[in-house]
Amino acid sequence: EGEPCDDGNDVDTDACTNACAMASCGDGIVWTDKEQCDNGAENGLGKACNGMCQSNVCGDGDAGPGETCDDGNADDTDDCVACQQASCRDGFVWSGEEDCDDGNDIDTDDCTNACEPAECGDGIVQEGVKECDDGNQVDGDGCFECKKPRRVIFVTSKKFEGSLGGVDGADDECEKAAIAAGFTNGASFKAWLSDKEATSPAKRLDTQYQGMYVLIDGTPVAENGWADLTDGELLHAVDLTDTKMKVNSAPWTNTKADGTAGENDCNAWTNATGDFSGGVGKTNATDATWTEAVGVSLCDGARPLYCIEDV
């Protein structure tokens, strides 16, 4: 008498505990086949074991330990996903809040880290799609409609002795070649040529240009403007003529890789005798020797010019 039960065994997890009390949720003993858990006074809402002695699990509508939310549904597009507050880059598109969510930290793919579709003008260069993106639609600033401007560089199909009429005379030849090639802005083409009087590409060309330099067929030579053109490493050799013929020759340059003047200029490009020499480049080179080849050539030899589009 005085005992609610006594089953005569030492099993504490059956219907009658070892204290001869009827098993119940909240007694701190997990009743076999009846309860999943029982933490006694620690049972309840938001706990690992709820008030019915069932384990708190995601989807039961009660945000338990390790869960920031639990809305009791399997909808991955609302504000609670897998019992975590929906957030950008969790891999699920939050309806009404996000336009995309690819679940990664790559800002240059087709879904940015702000969970917005990549688009021209967002200031992010999407790999393989955009050449540039400066975050605006201003023309003339080095990036327009997410494409870099292009300026052409070619080798003249015509060859010249060292008596070019100075650098200005070489510019005239480049203008003629550009017009013959179909360029309406022929006058903007200049010879990549220097004399010892400090007339050099670095002095007379647009050194602030940030667009691309390309061959006459569009092949990129330098991707990021003057800085890339003069760093001693080209993307492709300057080996196409104004008639789109591939050549392997040594154009007159007397110009160093950085665009400054060398020391051999056929007497300021006015002499065509073997008494003077001129610096040359190599049309099959992508290193500094494209403009600054080892050795010089006598001025009575006929060689082409590099012509480059400028402002």
From TrEMBL:
Residues making up the signal peptide according to the UniProt record: none
InterPro entries: C-type_lectin-like/link_sf, CTDL_fold, DUF1554, Myxo_disulph_rpt
Keywords: Disulfide bond, Repeat, Signal
Organism domain of life: Bacteria
Domain DUF1554: residue ranges: 159-285
Protein name: Myxococcus cysteine-rich repeat-containing protein
